[in-house]
Amino acid sequence: MRIVLVGPPGAGKGTQAAFLAKNLGIPHISTGDLFRANISQGTDLGKQAKAYMDAGNLVPDEVTIGMAKDRMEQADAANGFLLDGFPRNVSQAEALDEMLNAESMKLDAVLDLEVPEDEVVKRIAGRRICRKDSSHVFHVEYKKPQQDGVCDVCGGELYQRDDDSEETVRTRLEVYHTQTEPIIDYYKAQGLVVTISALGKVEEVTARAMEALKSKADDK
């Protein structure tokens, strides 16, 4: 299957993408991973991206599209892929369609993870990260540390990242509504969108997603 995963920040896209890709036996292709890989490997696209990022500018669509194209042409993506973070806007969605059409391919589904805005704010603004090891993540409501402000694993100080503040989260949501949400309508016009609730336990959301994708495949 060739799938695009969409949803607001805090919807759990990265977590769900990893589980779904494993269950479906296809690679999880995330924009963040593409950027890190290209920059660390010193590819031409990576150098271009780094130059824009170092200057504090957004990376142009054509650079992101080029990275995605290179990745989708790798052997492990021959039988499908799950895109996470790409396309991010309608221009990128149109470019993806052109790429796939050129190879006589098409998307099978666009999975839309739906989460109420207040829940997104609660999820992200409540996160607390360990200063000693950023992989130790807690939450003031959903995963409380045994002692306030102290990491259960290593005893490091827990803090809220600047980009996890409520004000920043609401700004990120505005960007999502303005730039990314329009791709849902774009794909709805192609009959590709399946929307599921991303509320509940991780495994419940994964089961919901797998059932929705199966139903979509059965409809074809």
Describe the structure.
With 220 residues, the protein is α/β, with parallel strands linked by helices. The protein has one domain: P-loop containing nucleotide triphosphate hydrolases (Rossmann fold), CATH 3.40.50.300. Helices cover 49% and strands 15% of the residues. It has helices at residues 13-24, 31-41, 44-54, 61-72, 90-102, 117-125, 166-180, 182-188, 202-219; strands at 2-6, 28-30, 81-84, 109-114, 127-130, 137-139, 158-159, 193-197. The strands form two sheets. The chain has a five-stranded parallel sheet, with helices on both faces. Strand 5 and strand 6 (137-139) form a beta hairpin. Helix 1 packs across helix 9, helix 2 (31-41) packs across helix 3 and helix 4 (61-72) packs parallel to helix 5. The model has no long low-confidence stretch (mean pLDDT 94).
* Secondary-structure arrangement, i.e. CATH architecture: 3-Layer(aba) Sandwich
The CATH topology assignment is Rossmann fold
Unreliably modeled segments: none
Amount of beta strand: 5-15%
Q: Give the strand line-up of the largest sheet.
A: 2-3-1-4-8
Main location: cytoplasm
InterPro entries: Adenyl_kin_sub, Adenylat/UMP-CMP_kin, Adenylat_kinase_CS, Adenylate_kinase_lid-dom, P-loop_NTPase
Enzyme class: transferase
Subunit structure: Monomer.
